[in-house]
Amino acid sequence: MTAEPALLRVTNLVKRFRVPGGVVEAVSGVGFSVRRGQTLGLVGESGCGKSTTGRAVLQLPPPDEGSVRFGEEELTVLSRRDLRRVRSRLQIVWQDPRSALNPGRRVRDLVAEGLVIAGHDRRAAGERVDAALAEVGLDPSAVGGRRPHEFSGGQCQRIAIARALVLEPELLICDEPVASLDVSVQAQVINLLRDVRAAHGLSMLFISHDLGVVHNVSDRVAVMYLGRIVEIGEVGAVYGSPAHPYTRALLDAVPVPDPDAPPPGPPLRGEVPSPLSPPSGCRFRTRCPLARPLCAERAPELRDIGDDHQVACHFSPEGGRP
To answer: Which of 15, 36, 212, 265 is the most exposed place for a label (fewest CB within 10 A)?
Structure first.
C-alpha cells in the first residue's frame, strides 16, 4: 500500500539574519513533512529556531535556501501574487493573541478580513464569519461588534483561531498558541484545536517549548536544538524511547508526580552556545554526555532507526536512555 503523499514537505531549510557582530543562521538545513490530517509537533528550547521555521514555511520572510513544497506548489519560487492565492490554504495562529489582533477593528471585521482580501461576496463572508465564531465557542451577535481589548486572552485566541478557520485552510501553523494563557485556559484552547482539526481534516504544524502540550496534540514530533532537528518520529516512540541525549534531557526535566518513577539522567552541563558561533560538528556536543572527538569533526545526519524514527547522533543507542 502506497503512503499518502505529504501535504507539506520542507527540505534543507536555511534562514539567516544579519545582526550586530555577524550573521546568525537561525535555521540550518531543517527538513520534515506533514501528511494530510496529521499534526507534527516542533519542540525545543527558546531560541532554537522553531518560530523562524514556521514563518519561513509561510514565506514570512522566505528562507535563504531550501524547498517548501505545499501540495503541488513550490512556495519559494512563487510571485507575491501567487503566494496570496495560496495563503488562504495555510494559516497561522500566533503566540500572543492580543498583539495579533488590530485593537482598532471590531471582531467581525477582523475575522472577515481574509475573506475580503480574497474577494468573497460580503454577504457570504458574513455568514462564514458567524459560523467560524460559533465554531470556536463565541456568540457572533454578542462579540461581533466589540473590539479585542474587551476580551480575555483566551477569548482573543479563539477569535484568532476563527480568523484562521474562516478561510477553510488545509494547514494550520500554531506558533506557541497557548504559551501566554493561564493553565486552565490552555486546556480549553488545546481541546478546541483538536476538535477543529478533526472536524475539518486539518493538518497542523504545532510549535511549542512545552513537551506536555506537544505530546497531547501531536501525531509526530520533531526536536530542535540550535537551528537543527536532532530527532523526529512518532510521539509514542520519541517520548517512550528517546534516541538523542538532548531529547532525553528535555524529557527528564519534566516533573513526574510518581515516587516510583525511575530517576532522571544527569542534568545537561554548560549553557546553550551562541548562535553567532555554534560549535563545529554536532552543535550539542559541548553539553552532551556521549561526546567524543568525532562529534567535533563531523555533524551527524538524521539516520533511520526504524518505524519512521530518525536521530542525528553518532553514538546514541537506538532508543532508550543513552
So the answer is: 212
Q: Helix, strand or coil for residue 70?
A: strand
Q: Are 222 and 40 in contact (CB under 8 A)?
A: yes
Alpha helix segments (H runs only) across 92-182 = 97-100, 107-117, 122-135, 140-143, 153-165
Confidence of residue 252 (pLDDT cuts 50, 70, 90): confident
C-alpha span between 19 and 167 (Å, rounded): 36
pLDDT tens-digit series, residues 289-302: 889 999 999 999 99
- Select 1-89+195-218's CATH number: 3.40.50.2000, 3.30.1360.40, 3.40.50.300, 3.40.640.10: 3.40.50.300
Per-residue model confidence as pLDDT tens digits over 157-193: 999 999 999 999 999 999 999 988 888 899 999 999 9
Give the Cα-Cα-Cα angle 310, 314, 317 (nearest 5 degrees).
65
**CA-based radius of gyration for the chain:** 21
Spans of all domains in the chain:
1-89+195-218, 230-322
State the DSSP H helix or E strand holding residue 235, giving kind and residue range, or none if neither.
Answer: helix 235-240
295 within 8 A of 314, measured Cβ to Cβ: yes
Give the span between the Cα atoms of 208 and 292, in whole angstroms.
Answer: 31
- Pairing mode, strands 90-93 and 8-19: unpaired
- Counted residue by residue, the chain has a size of 322
User: Measured between alpha carbons, how far is 20 from 195 in angstroms, rounded to an integer?
Assistant: 44
